[in-house]
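U., I forgot to send this yesterday:
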Amino acid sequence: MKSVERTLLDRRSIRRYEREAITPDQMQIIYEAIRNTPTSYNGQQFSVIDISDQELKEKLYEITGQKQIKTCNHFLLFCADFHKITLAAADKGVEMPEFTHTADGLIVGTVDAALAMMSAVVAAESLGLGTCCIGYARTANPEAVAELMKLPQGVYAVCGLAIGVPRELPDLKPKQPAELLIHSNSYSADEKMLPLLRFYDGEIEAYNRTRSGSKSTNDWTAHIVSYYAEAMSYHMLAALRSQGYDPQK
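Result:
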């Protein structure tokens, strides 16, 4: 098992996997790491669907267009989940407030699911497995994913995680310098950040131009803004409402 340092600092997205299966013992360690995730109020406002059925993985691939979903050994779908507490409250005759109709309710469930995914990433990577976080599991067609996964009211897909035995070791992608990510006592001034942002644009452009595999001349700023522009066509609010979320407060 890798050290904590190497697990965290050597992590990279793996999109090509061997046919070799992940062992039940390895999956159990990942499950236990997920179970031990810190959550708001200890409410555990998340659930995970472990998808190992090949037919289901291929259907999810058709929805998302993410090839690693059908080639990985296990695909974990992390969901915000207020269905469990609603069910338990009804069973005990406790009135359930419309927490899913608040911005905080949406945030709480999303954060819990994202923390659970990171727990799974760290556990899987420490075992020498490869992982790839997939946001398109949330945005590509949320209604189709909800129907395929039989998600009840109060549950919506936040993110997905492909896990498998790695067939590749991509170059480690440069991340923003610590000064852009970690501010001391207050948020840094723009004049301090702009030179660092310009430097990072150049670093990413050089990485994309020289990395192994497919190459491009993309920098960071324009490339990420293009993702945002694409995301303007998503219909997440309507999808959330169909799953019982209607954040108004």
